[in-house]
Amino acid sequence: MLENSERYPLQNIVVDDLFSANKLVVALLIAIVMTAVTTVWVTHKTRTLTSEKGELVFEKQALENEYLNLKLEETTQSDNTRIEAIATVKLGMKHIDSEHEVVILE
Length: 106
Prior knowledge:
Order of helices and strands: HHH
Number of strands: 0
Number of domains: 1
Helix content: over 70%
Strand content: under 5%
């Protein structure tokens, strides 16, 4: 059989045994490993997307606040009393009398 100096090829025997007699076990083992890796990957992606969603919600709230501030500023800037005050105080304008009014017709 084998001489004393030779060793049994145990690794080859185990591999041959797994792939010849236990094909179902190997297939199930591969399926389990693939499922575990996929689960870890999906969990990582879910956490990444959840974090990104939180950042986007925060950015949306900041943009909404800025929009509301701009609308308020627009309302304030377009107020007629403010415009009239600037025209009379800074520019020295005054309301025109009807006797000084000139109408140009074409």
